[in-house]
Specification:
CATH superfamily of the largest domain: Thiamin diphosphate (ThDP)-binding fold, Pyr/PP domains
Number of domains: 3
CATH topology of the largest domain: Rossmann fold
Shape: elongated
Oligomer: single chain
Length: 671
């Protein structure tokens, strides 16, 4: 893709980028001009000579992905999008960091065309890029033929010192090297400056040796030398067995006479006088803001025209490919449209009411059934698959040199797993899931949060969902975790009451295409509710439903429970039935329940019934919106302990006797 572009052309383009970045940050009086100015030369070479993308078709499947992991340097990306032809006008550059603009402080996926992922917390983009590169490898192995390769692109990422200090970068880049992701190319902006000053304050890593230890190819260049940049990119793109890091020795705020190589350029505007001085130093008009020379416009217009031809040729070839490969055409549709069969409920396993089973085990059984029907469903565990029951049987693993499989071994890398899953979801072509113990959702939380922000349909299997973990003790017994995830916007929690609800919860998670879902599953066995006697488990999709009622009409007592506590509530209701008209409500998902019409919510939780007892093996935080000022909770507002789980249940009050006593005390207080 090399074109006849001179180094003088590249210098003019790079200085234009610096001018746009300076002006955007200065106009907002907020932002980070230093990194965009430092990496402008690399960006100019990459975008004008190598990056395969089509701004007029921003979602082109076979485009190269570009991830700016250091999202604080967003004016670099916005400048490139403006120049490349993504329809981002100067008015938006001038509205940087302002209300309702297309140029927020950190890039936001789906908000601005050309932004591949939401990057803010450092290191997340590193994981996203790794996930994108994995997805490319997997799809290429499924669809490429000797005659046509519909999936054949690179993932380019740009990171800085902060990204490499964050622990997540170790997790994902270690796995990237292990898998041999040769089409992942990382530009490391090595300017040795952070907000507090020189990186020498806190870091003396040998990055070259670190990445060589990961099995990466390591190239070192002067990040302001166009010939070196060009040569390094070409060499990285020829690498056949390893990912490549290009260590770019750069100067933060390159071109600024007084802020060059200073921490002050990292997170604050240069200042009006320094902007003028910098423009003069760079050969840009001092009196013009957001200036783009005609020559630079021509360079990017020529590149756009070429990329349009490349994308159009790909589309033509794809239209010929499908008729010649009907099986692959059908598979392509399933992968990229993420088709969930209409008869999905008919494919679910049946569970014997006479045989209690842990919901984690039931989830594993469900997974086998749905995986057989959904070839796009892939996933893995953070070294806990035998315990999570998250392994798809009778299909291969994903491993270096072989990407036809569907099972990932993420290793003990929960945070990296989350960011990689996000990257795969962003890339498209797969519906992904990841698994670990629920208590370790803490390690995934930043990636979970970004999945929620980006509306990514990532599924999490969180097993060992309560103190019933038992002997492992408080470090492994989640208490506050349900509450903490419930307060995360756009996160859907599903805590099924029994194996049949577990199957329904999987379906609900698959149908949720606008955000992440978390399946909370038990270690201990649960009774299988006989659905010939009780309402269908498909009611899980409503978030909450009446499971049983001991009398007719409006109940005078509600027992509301989730997960393993639903059977406890049912047993207690049968005893309380002598004195009260008790309704047991299974509430696996607050989030799905809140999406139901008000009439349905009032039907399940009638306002007339104010004696409400919530029962859940987690902290009580948040339950009061359902139990009200006259209700109570049987929850766990303390950390767990190490003992057999039945002993813990007795001591923590999760017994039929204690639930009955709590209900009667509530009733007495309401007289």
């Amino acid at each position: 893709m090399k074109t006849n572009i001179t180094n003088e052309d590249l210098k003019l383009a790079a200085n234009t980028i610096r001018g746009l970045a300076m002006d955007g940050v200065q106009k907002a009086n907020s932002g980070h001009p230093g990194m965009p100015m430092g990496m402008a030369d690399v960006a100019a070479v990459l975008f004008l000579k190598y990056l395969k993308h089509c701004p007029t078709s921003p979602n082109w499947t076979d485009r190269d992905r570009f991830v700016l992991s250091g999202g604080h340097g967003s004016m670099l990306l916005y400048s490139m999008l403006h120049l490349s032809g993504y329809g981002l006008p100067v008015s938006e550059l001038a509205a940087f960091r302002q209300w309702n603009s297309k140029t927020p402080g950190h890039p936001e996926y789906r908000h601005t065309a050309g932004v591949e992922t939401t990057t803010g917390p450092l290191g997340q983009g590193c994981g996203n890029a790794t996930g994108m590169a994995i997805a490319e490898k997997m799809l290429a192995e499924r669809f490429n033929t000797p005659d046509f390769k519909p999936v054949d692109h690179y993932t380019f990422a740009m990171c800085g010192d902060g990204d490499l200090m964050e622990g997540i970068s170790h997790e994902v880049f270690s796995l990237a090297g292990h898998l041999g992701l040769n089409k992942l190319i990382l530009f490391y902006d090595s300017n040795k400056i952070t907000i507090e000053g020189s990186t020498d304050l806190a870091c003396s890593d040998n990055v070259k040796k670190r990445f060589q230890g990961y099995n990466w190819s390591v190239l070192e260049i002067d990040g302001h030398d166009y010939d070196q940049i060009d040569k390094a990119i070409r060499k990285a793109m020829r690498e056949k067995s390893r990912p490549t890091i290009i260590v770019c020795r750069t100067h933060i705020a390159h071109g600024s006479p007084n802020k060059h190589d200073t921490a002050g350029a990292h997170g604050e505007p240069l200042g009006a006088d320094e902007v003028k001085a910098s423009k003069k130093n760079l050969g840009l008009p001092e009196d013009k803001d957001f200036y783009v020379p005609e020559k630079v416009k021509e360079l990017f217009a020529d590149r756009l025209a070429k990329m349009q031809r490349v994308a159009s040729k790909w589309e033509r070839n794809l239209s010929k490919y499908f008729p010649s490969n009907p099986d692959k055409a059908d598979l392509w549709k399933k992968h990229f449209e993420d088709i969930i069969p209409e008869n999905i409920n008919e494919l679910l396993p049946q569970f014997d009411p006479a045989k209690p089973i842990a919901s984690r085990a039931a989830g594993g059984t469900v997974l086998q059934k749905i995986a057989a029907a959904l070839p796009q469903l892939v996933g893995g565990s953070a070294d806990l698959a035998p315990s999570n029951k998250s392994y798809i049987e009778k299909v291969p693993d994903v491993k270096g040199g072989s990407f036809a499989g569907r099972n990932f071994h993420f290793g003990i890398r929960e945070h990296g797993m989350g960011a990689i899953l996000n990257g795969m979801a962003l890339h498209g072509g797969f519906h992904v899931y990841g698994a670990t113990f629920f208590v370790f959702s803490d390690y995934c939380r930043p990636a979970l949060r970004l999945a929620a922000i980006m509306n990514l349909p990532v599924i999490y299997i969180f097993t060992h969902d309560s103190f019933y973990v038992g002997e492992d003790g408080p470090t492994h017994e989640p208490v506050e975790h349900m509450a903490s995830l419930r307060c995360m916007p756009n996160m859907t929690i599903l805590r099924p009451a029994d194996p049949t609800e577990t199957a329904a919860a999987w379906v609900a998670a698959l149908k949720n295409k606008t955000g992440p879902s978390a399946l909370l599953l038990t270690r201990q066995n649960l009774p299988v509710i006989d659905r010939s006697k009780y309402p269908a488990a498909s009611n899980v999709e409503k978030g909450a439903y009446t499971l049983l009622q001991t009398g007719q009409g409006t109940p005078n007592m509600l027992l509301i429970a989730s997960g393993s506590e639903v059977s406890l509530a049912m047993d207690a209701a049968n005893i309380l039935a002598k004195d009260y008209n008790v309704r047991v409500v299974s509430m696996p998902s607050w989030e799905l329940f809140e999406k139901q019409p008000e009439a349905y919510r009032k039907e399940v939780l009638p306002a007339e019934c104010r004696m409400r007892l919530a029962i859940e093996a987690g902290c009580s935080f948040g339950w009061h919106k359902y139990v009200g000022d006259r209700g109570r909770t049987v929850c766990l507002d303390r950390f767990g302990a190490s003992a057999p789980y039945k002993v813990l249940a007795e001591n923590f009050g999760f017994t039929v006797q204690n639930v009955v006593s709590a209900a009667k005390e509530m009733a007495a207080a309401n007289k």
